[in-house]
Design a protein that fits this description.
Length: about 400
């Protein structure tokens, strides 16, 4: 995926003279002079921009370039390039046109512009509020809405629904849209024999930049992804159709109900991968299943059957695989008839007692993981996974 992004965004891969305008985020690091309050938002926008699926076009790139330069360096004070130097002149013109616009305003405008680009690219692949029949989503994350239920389906069965960086972004956008649509409940499920095999282990190869930049943008993406589940305002249900691994298991602690096929298993092999728990599981799992059982999963990577996960409180109910889909969707259709506002409010009053705590846990888990991602243990584990496969 990032290979594709690289091809889209990087100057050398583009053709016409104006296409060689690359995003400032490809070239520069964010200035340390930016104010703290805005810095995080600004950095997030820089990352978000790299994850956009659609090329926003040269005019928009010029605007972003100009705002980026203004936000970091202030008014344009470099000599005007010659008329034959078309690209640099276009860039200079765009920057110079911002005159004395304050850095803070430029930063804010940059963030607003990226946000509007992200939501417009999301709206083309997502369920519109009020939709009552199936809508097309992207290839790997399909969003549909019917009978008061918005369904977000992981649809990468040949890779056991492993989550790519693009899919994280798409799930975030799908959840944001679902939080505002008129459905009563939202469901996450998988297509094929797996629910999800967790993080796509090639994500770190495909994230752009050097290791430090990968770790930084991976951390921001993970934190934003988990935050969406913490903040999701209406009942959220997991329909676990098969085995679940890694982050697809840990975030289950943030769902309101988890229904599983008896073929499902629950596996968090973090330490074997040189990693550490995420998805708020270092807090939710001990709370849900007690410290002893949580440690067996999160430290020693014990894989649970659906029955065990249910006995330990991670799963709400287990159904035989042969009748799983019918039984669960009948149940969900009944649940979708609850008064929507009462459903939301009831969820929120339960969640709000610990929302702040969950965000703090998320931030700390990401901080620790960012260190892990730079460890030899992690790099060896990822290399082993792919080199074993290569030998098959
Ligand atoms: C932005 C960063 C956020 C980071 C968040 C932190 C999250 C951490 C985690 O989620 S840790 C968990 C990571 N997941 C794994 O370790 C699972 C790895 N996969 C496997 O162990 C196995 O593939 C399996 C047990 C899931 C399934 O085994 P099997 O039934 O034998 O199928 P295959 O192994 O042949 O798989 C088919 C096909 O899918 C590819 N694949 C499966 N899982 C992943 C994955 N997680 N990442 C990348 N690719 C995966 C596998 O390579 C095969 O592809 P191929 O046919 O070889 O092209």
């Amino acid at each position: 995926m990032a290979k594709m992004l690289g091809a889209r965004w990087c100057p050398s891969a583009l053709r016409s003279p104006l296409q060689v305008i690359s995003f400032p985020a490809c070239q520069l690091h964010v200035s340390r002079r930016a104010k703290n309050a805005d810095q995080k938002e600004f950095e997030n926008a820089v990352t978000q921009l790299k994850l956009l699926k659609k090329d926003p076009g040269n005019e928009m790139k010029l605007k972003l370039y100009a705002l980026y330069k203004q936000a970091n360096e202030g008014p344009c004070n470099i000599p005007k390039p010659g008329v034959l130097n078309l690209i640099n002149k276009a860039k200079w013109d765009a920057w110079n046109a911002l005159g004395n616009l304050p850095k803070e305003t430029a930063r804010q405008n940059y963030v607003d512009l990226v946000t509007s680009l992200s939501s417009s690219s999301a709206s083309s692949s997502q369920v519109k509020p009020g939709a009552d029949k199936e809508q097309q989503g992207s290839e790997n994350v399909v969003v549909t809405s019917e009978d008061g239920i918005t369904k977000i389906m992981l649809n990468r069965p040949t890779k056991k629904n492993a989550i790519t960086t693009q899919m994280y972004q798409e799930i975030i956008l799908a959840l944001k849209a679902a939080s505002k649509d008129d459905s009563t409940i939202t469901v996450l499920t998988g297509n094929g024999d797996y629910y999800c095999s967790g993080n796509d282990l090639s994500n770190f190869n495909t994230l752009p930049g050097e290791i430090e930049e990968k770790v930084k943008s991976g951390g921001i993406l993970l934190r934003d992804f988990v935050a969406c589940f913490i903040d999701f305002p209406k009942p959220l249900i997991a329909v676990v159709n098969g085995p679940a691994v890694g982050i697809s298991v840990t975030i289950l602690g943030l769902f309101d109900a988890v229904y599983a096929s008896d073929k499902a298993t629950f596996h968090t092999p973090f330490t074997h991968l040189g990693q550490s728990p995420e998805g708020c599981s270092s807090y939710t799992f001990p709370k849900i299943m007690g410290l002893a059982k949580a440690k067996e999963m999160l430290i020693f990577g014990k894989k649970l059957t659906a029955g065990e996960a249910c006995a330990q409180g991670l799963v709400t109910e287990v159904f035989p695989d042969s009748t799983f889909q019918t039984e669960v969707w009948t149940r969900l259709k009944a649940y979708s008839k609850i008064p929507p506002n009462a459903g939301r409010i009831s969820k929120q009053i339960i969640r709000n007692w610990e929302k702040e705590k969950l965000h703090a846990v998320n931030a700390e888990e990401v901080r620790v993981l960012q260190e892990r991602w730079q460890s030899e243990e992690f790099l060896n584990a990822v290399m082993n996974f792919f080199s074993k496969r290569a030998k098959l």
